[in-house]
Amino acid sequence: MSLNENDKKIIIELVKAGEKLPKELIYKLFSDEEDVFLFWNGRKEEVTNVALPFHSIEHIDEPRKESVKSGDNFSMFETDFRGRQIKGWTNKLIWGDNKLILSSLVNGPLRQDIEKEGGLKLIYIDPPFAVGADFGFDIQIGEETAEKKQSIIEEIAYRDTWGKGISSYLSMMYERLKLMHSLLASDGSIYIHIDWRVSYYLRFICDDIFGKDNFLNEIAWTYFAFKRKTAKKFPQKHDTIISYRKDANNFTFSTQFKPHKAEYIEKKWKKDNDGRFYRDDVNPTKGGTRIIYLDEIEGDIVDSVWDDIPPVNPVADEKVDYATQKPEALLERIIRASSKDGDLVADFFCGSGTTAAIAEKLGRKWITTDLGRFSVHTARKRLIGVQRELQASGKDFRAFELLNLGKYERQFFMDDLTNGKRKAKEDLYVDLILEAYKAKRIDGHTTLHGSKAGRFVNVGPLDVPVTQSRLMDIFEECRQKLYTQVDVLGFEFEMGLTPQFIQELKEKGVTITLKYIPKDVFDKRAVEKGQVKFFDVAYLDAKIHRKGKNIQIELTDFVTHYSQDDVEEIQNSMRKGSKVIIEDGQILKLEKTELGILTKTILTENWYDWIDYWAIDFDYLSKKEIIKITDAEGTVEEKWTGNYLFENEWQSFRTKKTPNLEFTSIPHQYEKPGKYKVMVKVVDILGIDTSKIIEINI
After folding, report:
1. Do 417 and 363 fall into the same domain?
2. Which class for 631: exposed (0-12), middle (13-18), buried (19 or more C-beta within 10 A)?
3. Most CB atoms within 10 A, among 190, 302, 457, 577?
């Protein structure tokens, strides 16, 4: 330590006064640690060690069955186009905060499953590196485009990442990279895709976590871009990919090759009478020369400058209209170089799902995660598309499941706020939701917690769905007290809460409106700024067509009241021109002329304009949802959640190539007579799920 007596006195006085230490004293204080000490405001050595169970939202074993059309619309000539779904490991698409996901993978029972597969051999991540990053996306409605603003939970992630500038970004990345390092197999590697804004910072961080001796490459991915004249520097035209291994003496790497350039072939190679390119080469063992043929060598060795992979072409088949989508060829090169067939690879900033899609095509197992609901939905469609592609060609593929941390994540947030005190947690939880909903707390009621603008408010439970019996209790109290309107807020709602049931209560004198509580309520800043948006529960309707033991499901209606815009405010602020907005379950185009005349055009003229994807589980009660929980002694036990697993047996969704949906499934045949529950799931163009259960007797 290079502190003199005066330095020590100054530090003691500053600490007593609660003042900040000057940087020069901090550096002196830690001068004996190492020659270069990596420090930034907010750096913490400890990482999150929570282990939350994962909920399985959806399981996709086979992409879907197909049927051969006949003259009869109810064709029984079903063709089995099933691929060969590989048993064992099920791939994971996980929605949520990757810090909690990584911590739960590192410390929870799923770690054992990962270790059984040999551990994570390769991690590729493309974390946000633009300070102005936005999680919004565009929705295409016919010829018009509506902007879907980022959710508050995504805005929170953005603020946490960039709120204090580079220091908060480093804190975010440091903790996650330490968790990734812990999860990486001993012979694994990591590739981090970054740009000029943060490349040198992350090199320092990775040297600190992985060790500078484990640095592999700094790859320059150069790509075509229209060059604009800049006054003070050369135009920026490349991203950086840095790679590290976990162990310098044991890691996977395979040299990659690319075709030789035409000018090189013409200059260095001759053509024989058969049209084959050849050249004379020195034979070092026998002396003299030998003839080698171009088609007998592997190609040009790929070095650290990748100038042969262009960005995703706007009209390419792989394009999924996701802003940060990376080309498949880029991920194919990385996955081929640093993993082998059957290895487990991961991407914890999933985006549009490119890593998982290429891993599946190359016979690797995968885990991929993202915070954004739309990102996860985009990846789900893309990965089902890969399954279909492999299935059609008779190739092997794996099932994948869509997971999240569900109620356990909510419990974690509340425990963190209240130090686990149950009574305090219950009271604080209700107060928190009411504040976010801008409602006032009321006393003297059994089922009602607050009021807002003449309507009463019930706050649904933290851990379980709002049930029909709960609504009946609310109805009875409202009827006795002559209340006519109540909003019921919940994270989840029981499947039996149909529009018909809500209408029956309305006809009896009480109008009940069901609204989803967004995860955003757990961010104090979002609540204080009034940014939390609750939206009405959507409803779908479906019809069953029966013929003996066979049924078809027809999707017949979808109703939503989703809003993200204040129409009046936008109208007042508009000058001439047009704007597409979302208000009360409609997508509207507002147009204002130079004379101030405003017109509104509804773009979602039909209910199906809202639907992006729908899927069916023909026997919803056939498989229980089992989660793994580690007890205090470290023993892993399996527990039924009380829910069932949605097994995605048939689905139809929009893609760039096929924008139209099918609204009737192919026939499904039941092997045995009995009572069955069919679940129909719709994902709308905003990425929000709505489900319905239909009971049938066979």
Report:
1. no
2. exposed
3. 190
